[in-house]
Amino acid sequence: MPELPEVETVRRGLESHVVGRTIESVHIGRERSVRRVGREAVIHGLTGAKVMAARRRGKYLLLDLDTGDLVMIHLRMSGRVLVEPIGAPRPPHTHVVCRLSERNGQHHEMWFVDPRTFGEVVVCESDDVSQVLPELDRLGPDPIVDDFSGEVLKDRLNGRRGAIKPLLLNQHVVAGIGNIYADEVLHRVRLRWNRTVDSLSTKTINALATAITEILTEAIERGGSTLEDTQYVDIDGKSGSFQDMHRVYGREGLGCLTCGKTTIRREMVAGRSTSYCPRCQK
Ligand SMILES: [Zn+2]
Predict the structure, then answer these.
(1) For the domain bounded by 150-276, which CATH number is listed?
(2) How remote is the CA of residue 177 from the centroid of ligand 1, in Å?
(3) DSSP run (H or E) holding 52
(4) pLDDT tens-digit readout, 88-143
(5) What is the whole-number distance in angstroms between the Cα of residue 190 and the centre of ligand 1?
(6) How much of the chain exceeds pLDDT 90, in percent?
(7) What is the pLDDT of residues 236-271, one digit of tens each?
(8) Which of 58, 70, 130, 238 is in the most buried spot, having the most CB atoms within 10 Å?
(9) Is 3 a catalytic residue?
């Protein structure tokens, strides 16, 4: 599933390829991709509108239109946003097609492709955002977009109980972290996934906040992580390369690159996999 670095990479692609262009026409294949507001609202909201900015909060992509409307795109499990020349063969599961105004003599389409159809494209008036997209108001701080520090993280963890990993995955605590980056962050600070939050010192929480910012930034620089079981690619169809830097995620059974003394273990916890080094992470 695309996490903050992958979604940020797509946002940067939208910024360079789509911002400043007008959406001339819209075609929607599968209604499920626009289930929240429906086909007519998406076609009506997008057609003739110019894209003014591409923003991101956590895993949510947000496009501001010159009409005052907001577009929200969530990739969920397998969504992709691609910009291709008009006439290029569309991949299977292309559910939303937006024809973009010409730029430098080039004509392009923006595609929303989503084999598993958990992803969404939503268009709403800016006055209705809280009503249509209530989850945006409940998101925790985005470690890249917002001010983020050990103090902020400590504040977000205050009053919460239980193991640290599910809290890192909780989008109300911190926005944008999923399974890959939670495992990598916990390895960098040498914490086992099930360490309880009340056992963490202020120093450890500070180190955790630093590792979150560092790892997400490093992953963005490498265009995110593309794994065999995911279809994540950037807007030009290019894979990320941060998977080559993973120390635990996807490395079960391989030697730990940090201690060199044991192999990475993978456990299933509440239906999700967790990869860690039993020697480095306590
Ligand atoms: Zn180790």
Answers:
(1) 1.10.8.50
(2) 22
(3) strand 51-57
(4) 999 999 999 999 999 999 999 999 999 999 999 999 999 999 999 999 999 999 99
(5) 9
(6) 96
(7) 999 999 999 999 999 999 999 999 999 999 999 878
(8) 58
(9) yes
CA 263/CA 6 separation, integer angstroms = 28
Beta-carbon contacts of 152 under 8 Å, excluding residues fewer than 6 positions away, are 141, 146, 209
Q: Give CATH 3.20.190.10 domain extents, the chain.
A: 4-138
| Catalytically annotated residue among 2, 5, 141, 143 | 2
Domain with CATH 1.10.8.50 in the chain: 150-276
Name the residue among 139, 138, 147 with its Cα closest to residue 7.
Answer: 139
C-alpha 259 – ligand 1 centre gap (Å): 4
Q: How far is the CA of 276 from the centre of ligand 1 (A)?
A: 8
**Is domain 4-138 annotated with CATH 1.10.10.10?**
no
Is residue 59 annotated as part of the catalytic site, yes or no? yes
Can you give the pLDDT at residue 1? 87
pLDDT band at 228 (very low <50, low <70, confident <90, very high): confident
